[in-house]
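Sharing in case it's useful to others searching the archive later.

Someone asked me privately for the predicted structure of CarboxypepD_reg-like domain-containing protein, so I'm posting the question and my answer publicly. Question first, with the sequence:
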Amino acid sequence: MRRLSLSKLFICLGIFVCFSILNEVQAQKFPKPPTKPIVKGQIINKESRPIPGATIIVEGTTTGTVSDINGFFQLDLTQFTEKQVTLVFGFVGTARKEMEVILKDLPKSYGQIKLKDAAF
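And my answer, the predicted structure tokens:
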């Protein structure tokens, strides 16, 4: 009888140790992987139609991109160390639009960005 209760004690102790180890592993905080400062969105006109070929440029630089056939764009701002940059959106026949982007808030999608007709 003593032998049986001793083996039960070792089994219970083993189970306790296993759960303790699993609990420690799950409780560890793993840091979030670094993210890239990427800006995304879609350029549309006043009728909410996509504008393919619209330009998106970081003001004062030559860094930029062009919207695709559906008006979508994605711009990687990894090279910038400032707290914020200004994006300039444009297309032939539309008014220029500027938007301040805070780099620490990225990655972020700005949804649809509407360009108004230019006043001639």
